[in-house]
Design brief:
By secondary structure, the protein is of the alpha/beta class. It contains 13 helices and 8 strands. It has an 8-stranded parallel beta barrel, surrounded by 7 helices. The longest helix is centred in the first third of the chain and has 20 residues.
């Protein structure tokens, strides 16, 4: 097995570990292990509290970067937890306003009740959008596993007709996205394009590589050429470069597009784009549910596990 094959294998294993609920529960309950791994997670998260995240967002705003804030969590299993999560997102909205931050809000629908009932999720999402709308804040629905993709998109299509500050994330590697995209580009909300980070069967998705890069760029070109609001959410330098060519060709309105990166990953590339005059955004997450997030960040480039080990013992 060569180095490339080992990296692919390592990525697949990490993605499976990320979705292991028993492993996540064990980490959260084991104080020593939690604190050890949190040192590695700190490289990629805004903190465990909203106040920590706000401080980091302020710092990035001062550098000229727009941000997005997400309270981490998914698969909420009871109404009480879904309402508590919704209250936290309302706190984010008010904190963005009170601190005069240049930031959007991101969330998983399963965090605010989608797994429990559609009605509960719709009610909570509407409350968050209404609060954010008062302050001129955009709300972005994050991508989730393929078992919920249909419900996530259905909820968005209902809610975007009622809230003009709502946006959606689409995963380029899913084959179904080709049909979903045709529907969603007709809606007013921003489309945030990502490649896709979840471990999914090969029959429903493309693996990382040239074909996926071309498919991703195809979506970006459709968005830019139609002047549709979009986020080009990638750390792939070649995709960023090709997207810049499309921007120069199609000349979309500046407020309709942005380059987006995750906090802690190749931020220098994002700063370079900002310095070239392109709209840019840095994506922050915070909270105690960082286990899945950490595994997925390392899975994107498995050699980062050595950096994580160094962070854990430093």
């Amino acid at each position: 097995m060569n180095e490339h094959e080992l990296l692919i294998l390592g990525s697949e294993v990490l993605k499976r570990i990320a979705l292991n609920e028993e492993a996540k529960a064990y980490v959260l309950k084991n104080e020593a292990l939690y604190e050890l791994l949190k040192k590695a997670a700190n490289r990629y998260i805004g903190g465990t509290s909203l106040s920590e995240a706000i401080d980091k967002v302020k710092n990035e705003n001062e550098k000229g970067l727009k941000c997005s804030i997400e309270f981490m969590g998914e698969n909420t299993r009871n109404e009480k937890e879904a309402i508590e999560a919704t209250s936290e997102f309302l706190r984010i909205s008010k904190s963005i306003k009170d601190n005069l931050l240049n930031s959007t809000i991101s969330l998983d629908l399963s965090h605010i009740g989608l797994v429990i009932s559609k009605d509960l999720c719709w009610k909570n999402l509407s409350a968050i959008c209404t609060s954010a709308e008062k302050y001129g804040i955009e709300v972005i629905i994050s991508a989730e596993g393929i078992e919920r993709t249909g419900e996530v998109i259905e909820t968005y299509k209902w809610a975007v007709k009622k809230h003009n500050n709502l946006s959606i994330t689409l995963q380029a590697y899913l084959h179904r996205t080709q049909d979903d995209f045709k529907d969603l580009i007709k809606e007013q909300g921003r489309i945030r394009m990502v490649k896709g980070a979840f471990d999914v069967p090969s029959e429903v998705s493309l693996s990382r590589g040239e074909e996926l890069d071309e498919r991703y760029l195809g979506y970006v070109e459709q968005l830019l050429s139609s002047n549709h609001k979009c986020s080009i959410a990638t750390h792939h330098e070649t995709i960023q470069h090709e997207s810049k060519k499309m921007i120069e060709l199609h000349k979309p309105d500046r407020e309709t597009f942005e380059f987006e990166s995750l906090y802690g990953i190749q931020t220098a590339q994002l700063m370079a784009l900002k310095n070239e005059g392109y709209p840019t955004k840095l994506y922050f997450v915070y909270g105690k549910e960082w286990y899945l997030y950490l595994c997925n960040r390392i899975a994107e480039y498995p050699l980062n596990i050595f950096r994580a080990l160094n962070d854990s013992v430093s």
